[in-house]
Write a structure and sequence with these properties.
322 residues, alpha/beta, eight-stranded mixed β-sheet, two-stranded antiparallel sheet, globular
């Protein structure tokens, strides 16, 4: 139980739950494009012959022909209006620690948008200058700040230019998050109990999935990675495999944290998006953690009637043997 919880916590903090806190042979290029997953074909036979719809995910491990990991990739979804004002919205998934080149490419891409709506749980009016230079006192933030040095990666809050003129905050403040929790009748104790039982459920699901794949992450493997001559790469491969596995369980957070960290904050971001569209902004990006994106996809296609036109992939972690 303790071992499984540690892996869930680490992978969640790394990216799949990542919340930015202020306090066959694969193609060789860094970015690859793919058409949007088609809806599942309906069968005229029995229900047992119907294939389930392909699960939408914004994070994957790209592999070679021998199933060796080559890169941890993050997706961008491209959406276009089908009615009303002409508008395009790109869902740009984020991972909060990544290769320097990954963040350099993102900064270049952000310049092409009229507005970039970004996530950042911070007090109202906080300065965006030098975000990555402040030492966080929050446990999640502290771990996010320490991992880049261990994994030979960059920290998102340091690498991304949040002071760009087209950047717009589209997230909750800590007080607003707390208020949303109170409105549901929850408090620290009730949240703690719910999260505990969510974790138990996640542990059981992931244990079953690992058993089916024959992919168990033992303490011996972790110890081996720690003493590997290329320790950062060995650890990145282990974490990437765990996050890839978590992708099969939605956000991987459980219902309680999914509501607090994803649903509530996505609702706030959608309000900002709708205002931008009403104000005539035509080319918009939503820059949020990859765990938020399937829910954003649903909101864009169902609430705003946008069409998902394509999905492209960008390498965030280079996992090739050096």
């Amino acid at each position: 139980m303790i071992k499984d919880f540690r892996w869930i916590a680490l992978a969640t903090i790394l990216a799949w739950a990542g919340s930015a806190l202020a306090d066959g042979p694969a193609p060789s290029s860094a970015t690859s494009k793919a058409k949007s997953p088609p809806p599942a074909a309906k069968s005229s036979d029995s229900k047992s012959s119907e294939k389930p719809a392909e699960k939408l995910t914004f994070m994957r491990v790209r592999r070679d022909a021998h199933e060796h990991p080559l890169a941890l990739e993050i997706a961008t979804g491209h959406y276009v209006s089908t009615q009303g004002k002409p508008v395009t919205v790109d869902l740009i998934g984020a991972i909060h620690i990544g290769d320097a080149d990954y963040y350099r490419r993102l900064n270049q891409r952000f310049r092409t948008y009229d507005k970039v709506l970004f996530e950042l749980v911070m007090p109202e009016g906080q300065s965006l200058k030098g975000l990555g230079d402040h030492r966080s006192t929050h446990p999640v933030g502290m771990l996010q700040q320490s991992l880049p040095g261990i994994l030979d990666l960059d920290y998102q809050l340091k690498a991304i230019d949040y002071t760009a003129k087209n950047f717009k905050h589209a997230d909750l403040s800590p007080d607003q998050m707390a208020e949303a929790i109170r409105k549901r009748g929850d408090n620290g104790a009730s949240i703690g109990i719910k999260v505990f039982f969510d974790i138990l459920k996640q542990v059981n699901q992931q244990s079953e999935a690992r058993a089916k794949k024959g992919a168990d992450f033992s303490e011996l493997q972790l110890l081996s990675a720690m003493f590997d001559p290329n320790r950062p790469l060995a650890l990145k491969k282990m974490f990437a495999e765990q996050m890839d596995l978590m992708g099969g369980f939605g956000t991987g957070l459980g219902a309680t944290l999914d509501t607090i960290l994803v649903q509530d904050r996505n609702t706030a971001a959608m309000k900002v998006l709708k205002k931008e569209i009403d104000n005539g902004t035509r080319k918009i990006a939503i820059f949020y953690g990859a765990a938020h994106m399937p829910d954003f996809d649903r909101r864009l296609t169902e609430e705003l009637k946008l069409k998902r036109e394509s999905i492209s992939w960008d390498s965030a972690w280079d996992l090739r043997d050096k």
